[in-house]
Amino acid sequence: MLEAVVVALTTPVLVGIYKDGRRIEVLTSPLQSSEALPALFDDILSRYQLGRIVYANGPGSFMAIKVAYIFLKTLSIVKEIPLQAADAFYFNGNRPVKAVGKLYFVKTSSTIKTEKFDAPVSAEFKLPSCIDNNDFTDASLPFYGIGAVG
After folding, report:
1. What tens digit of pLDDT does each residue of 44-102 get?
2. Which H or E element spans position 100?
3. pTM
4. Which residue from 128, 129, 118, 63 is spatially nearest to 89, judged by alpha carbons?
5. Nearest-5° angle of CA 89, CA 93, CA 95?
6. CA–CA separation, 111 vs 93, rounded Å?
7. Domains plus CATH for the chain?
């Protein structure tokens, strides 16, 4: 089975193509998710028959999460491709994820909360070389973590 794994929480947007759980290609885009995802998936769908899409459903940028979910959920419905999710921490080694200001999302066991860090925390997102179906959930709704900040 071919799968696309999408991390569109920040730039660059990352999409990995996996065959039988092993990564066979990585596509990236420096564009915002609203521009990157249509271009990337135009290319992907012209070359691959996907059996599943997995995405990082948050926490992270509200707008990036919303755009990714709406785009991928629509694609999932139209192309009849199952959509699953994993939290952002799966893709950054469980490091803090930037929220707003000095606040970062942190995950301890199964709880995600915010913590203040005085110094900036770097946590680059990466696509794993191999994936396991047990790492993903059918509960693909976005996870925002905190309410909108104006």
Report:
1. 999 999 999 999 999 998 899 999 999 999 999 999 999 999 999 999 999 999 988 89
2. strand 97-100
3. 0.93
4. 128
5. 65
6. 16
7. 2-88+126-135 (3.30.420.40)
Amino acid at 4: A
Rg value, the chain, Cα: 15
pLDDT reported for residue 110: 75
The phi and psi torsions of 88 (rounded to 5 degrees) equal -60, -30
The single residue listed with the structure tokens 């071919």 is 2
Per DSSP bridges, beta strands 103-108 and 111-116 are: antiparallel
In 3D space, the residue among 10, 13, 18 whose CA is nearest the CA of residue 105 turns out to be 10
State both tokens at 55. 């995405």
- Find the helix or strand (DSSP H, E) in which 71 lies: helix 62-79
Beta pairing class for 2-7 and 52-56: parallel
